UniProtKB/TrEMBL annotation:
Family: Belongs to the PsaJ family.
Protein's organism: Calothrix parietina FACHB-288
Transmembrane segments: 20-40
InterPro entries reported in the protein's UniProt record: PSI_PsaJ, PSI_PsaJ_sf
Gene3D superfamilies, per the entry: Single helix bin
Annotated protein name in UniProt: PsaJ protein
Keyword annotations: Membrane, Thylakoid, Transmembrane, Transmembrane helix
Compartments in which it is found: Cellular thylakoid membrane
Domain of life, source organism: Bacteria
Chief location category: membrane
Membrane topology classification: Single-pass membrane protein
Amino acid sequence: MQKANDQQSYFRRYLSLAPVLAVLTISIAFSTWAIFNFVFPDLLFHPMP
């Protein structure tokens, strides 16, 4: 049976892998872009009067 410390160290090692970090980074970047476009929409679709 594994110790809790071993499982935590394996979990930390998994979170530091490149694919996991890439997915997190892309998710945060897309979410930021989507929120920005929701708050400040493109003037092509919402023309000024």
